[in-house]
Amino acid sequence: MDDNLERIAEALRRIMTEGGEGNFAIMTADERRNYYIQFASECGSTSLFGEAVSNESLTTGNALGPRQEQRLEELSWLPPEDNCTNYHREWTEDHDDGVRALAGTVMQTFREVYGIPPEQPIEIELNLDELDS
To answer: From the CA atom positions of the chain, what is the Rg in Å?
Structure first.
C-alpha cells in the first residue's frame, strides 16, 4: 500500500470533515524546486479546490516544459488564468472512493508531471481552521 497515497487521502478527508471554513492542505514533493499541490475546503463540504504549481511560481531551471503542461491538462487540471496563476480545478467528492481517486491523481501529477519518484515522501502541511467558540 502506498503510504503517500493514504496520507494524502486522509488530509483531503480531514479538510472536508474537521475544522471550519478556511481549511487547506499543502502537499510538497520537492521544496527546493517548489513542486507542490494544494487543496482548500471546509468542514461539511463535498467540494475541494485544488491547485498544482505552474511556471508562475517556479524558477527558470525548474520550469515545466510543454509536455509537462500538456500532461497536467490530460490529468484534468485547468490552465492558469487571471484569477488563478496555478493549474487548478474544483472537485466534488462525497464518497471515500472519490477521495482516494483524487489522492491518486495527486500522486500521478507528482510522478508524471514533476518527476517525483513514487517512493519519495510527500510532505503534507494540514491547516484546519479553528471554530469560533
So the answer is: 14
**Contacts of 74 by beta carbon, 8 Å cutoff, 6+ apart:** none
**Amino acid, single-letter form, for residue 110:** F
Query: Which amino acid is it at 65?
Result: G
How many other C-beta atoms lie within 10 A of the C-beta of residue 96?
10
Residue pLDDT, tens place only, 26-42:
999 999 999 999 999 99
Q: Which amino acid is at 108?
A: Q
CA distance 46 to 48: 7
Contacts of 103 (CB under 8 A, 6+ apart): 5, 6, 8, 9, 12
State the Cα angle at 27 between 68 and 91, rounded to 5°. Answer: 75
Structure pTM? 0.94
